[in-house]
Amino acid sequence: MTAPAIQIYRWSREEYERMISAGVFHPEVRVELIDGEMLEMTPQGSRHVTAVRLIEDALRAACAQGYDVRVQMPLAIDLDSEPEPDVAVVGGNPRDYRDAHPSTAVLVVEVADSSLSFDRERKKNMYGRNGIPEYWILNLVNGCLEVYRNPSEGFYQSMVVLHSHETVSPLFLHGKDIGISELLP
Question: Regarding the domain delimited by 44-183, which CATH topology (the fold level of the hierarchy) does it fall under?
Answer without folding.
Answer: tt1808, chain A (3.90.1570)
